[in-house]
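3.2 Worked example (two chains)
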Amino acid sequence: MKKQINLRSMAAQAVEQVIEQGQSLSNILPPLQQKVSDKDKALLQELCFGVLRVLPQLDWLINKLMSRPMTGKQRTVHYLIMVGFYQLLHTRIPAHAALAETVEGAVVIKRPQLKGLINGVLRQFQRQQEELLAEFAQSENHFLFPKWLLNRVQKAYPLQWQHIVEASNQRPPMWLRVNRQHNSRDSWLTLLEEAGLQGFPHLDYPDAVRLASPAPVTALPGFVEGWVTVQDASAQGCIAFLMPKNGERILDLCAAPGGKTTHILEAAPEASVLAVDIDDQRLSRVYDNLKRLGMKAQVKQGDGRFPEQWCGDEQFDRILLDAPCSATGVIRRHPDIKWLRRDRDIPELAQLQSEILDAIWPHLKPGGTLVYATCSILPEENSQQVAAFLKRTTDAQLSETGTPQNPGLQKLPGAEEGDGFFYAKIIKQ
């Protein structure tokens, strides 16, 4: 007998793994998507990402409509009801189909006795939707952020915090990087238009194109041949500061999944690049990216705190350190970050970043350039981190990015712009 597939119950179980077990959606979702048809892959992703994006709203509604929470083995049903709410509120799925499929999900997770309960809660929500949503809009949960993170963002950005929170709760724009070894950006934009799609060039970054609306990579001219790569505009900014040159020895540290490694080689195809990451599994994606783009780089598994283990006493002309961070600038791409991170993670990450900076600095040649980058928006990981490094490192000089008092350049997530990102360009004297 063929195992029944129900996207709603799959989404409910995936969200439960994120919230209850602290697992990353990037690890859970791909194997689940292997089990469903191509047209269902996108819907499964939309349900998982969407529920995590607006989780406080869905949680609040359940608490309003149910006298007591679902616990223990019934917990999956709690998340199944969330998936039901999400469809009714945030998708164009017809209400009758959303209800029927969600109720049917109870059978697949072996809770058929709860079909009536799920149906009742969803129908009650339909009847009271307007007044419930009006009440929710007045609650402190309506920012859709965990309290500790909201506090940190408000403290760091007293004037911009609402804009940041709003942008972080949106669906992200789709940014591409045109491979200048094959086409100029303008000529590729013409090919894109001929393919029936519309794109807009980024004002500052010469390879970046934003699609008017997201499209599958198979629809992009020359994707398979390596003419174009999916990469957020802000991540592309790293290369603008690194300025790699042919003939140089360049280290890309914390390199997985390899977007910046390949960007370095597009800008300087004759450079010799070493890509290092601590995560063996994610390194396989570096190989995949190099292969699709027909490029060669040295790839090694290694810990940034102990460079002597993977490069001896070698020195590099340029180092790109895309440091491990809270990823608070890319929440719109990875909404599970809001629920996986904890307040206590921030000082721990800042400590790790400073250890890597201190360990890798001796491996930069005199006159060389180090670009410190994160996809965080928190000062502890960014401007404060770099200020402390400059203070204790006598031969480090800030260049082009901020002032010694307020070092680095902080990008905030914006509806049509890139993700939240930070760069500091440091020269060794």
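3.2.1 Second chain
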Amino acid sequence: MKDESKLLLIYIDGMVRLQSIEDNVLKPLIFNGLPQGIDKIESLAEMFRCEWLPLTNVKTEETLEGLINHILQGSLAILVDGNVSSLITQVQNYEMRSIEEPKKESTLRGSKEGFVENIRTNTSLIRRRIIHPNLKMESFKIGKYTQTEVVLAYMQGVADEQVLLKVRTKLNKIDLDGVIDSAYIEEWIENSSFSIFSQIQNTERPDITVASLLEGKVALITNGTPFALILPITLWSGLQSADDYFERFVFVLLTRWIRYVMAFISLALPAIYVALSTFHPEMIPSNLMIGIATARESSPFPTVVEVFLMMFIFDGLQEAGVHLPNRLGPVVSIIGALVIGQAAVEAGIISTPIIIVISLTGVAAYTIPTYSLTLPFRFIRYLLLFLSGFLGFVGFTSGVIVLLIHLVMLESFGTPYLSPVAPFDGVRIKDLIIRYPFWVRNGQKKKGRA
């Protein structure tokens, strides 16, 4: 046996638990040394089977590339002079944010836990809610330089195998230098990248993710981002809130239809107002039309220009509120809208009915639960406004028809985007119109108390 055996420990400072290395590796070596008969042991793995060091999650690595990848991910590498293999043990210690209430998708009732940037925490939040062996999670490494871990989660026997095959194929074809956020994955795997409508839902709520998995959908969890991707989805997924399934079904009927009406108002109200007041004033009651004409008497701009200016200012204030610090954002948005609106009316630049229309449109947009759905609605709002400003209701109707054609042709991983409305599904559309009690949805009769 040699007098000395040289060992090399390799790790990245700041990514490992130094206390674990000191207690489980350095102290046993310093005070006890290597065990007798180590020269007769052929591999490092056998050394640990002989309980040389009290470490768990230990595996051997034969290649230099694999060794480097493990070290960069925060593992500890142990090399022994004269041994061709290396030992890898997991002693990661990342600084991460604690679990907090979701800020983007807040609810009045339900779980207050939200995803964080650590993928292991996120997968554990799902496994805590689904305690069944059919919950499967497959890991992928994406990004040439970042080697970002992406987990594909689904319920075996519930999820569509064709959807799973498509997702796996697209994930394996991703060729990126780095994945910083789940948005990189979303743009790469969705069917129609040039569509303004997202075919993948993003959520920061574990309960929504779990409910989607139980419905047969698929979830993608990306390391480093607190949002999970859910697919396939439909247009109506963005108009449904988690509170719809946490509150009593009787009240959900009213709130859901309020949301649908407000979504249509946010999309079409400015265009309808311009078309009516400019091209079709005979459709407006006489007294109301006289009031609108009187209010616009001092305005120097056409109605379509007035509406465009106010919409542009409102959206600008909204963006300012998003990017300013949390304490200043709402203040600037509210005060800015009040001051600018009042000053514009007093100066005679904008008429009072325009302020009412744009304010109602903005409030209606905030009733849409999913922020990613408000973005295409905002874009369409401008298109319909210009079509109505030049062609009246002919332009508005043409724009709506083109929009419906696009939505009918759009798919999300084989699922029609307007399903179950088009194509019509009499069973699934029930949950779209009203929210049935859970005991009805499961096909069971409610049993009375004994």
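3.3 Remarks
The radius of gyration is 30 Å.
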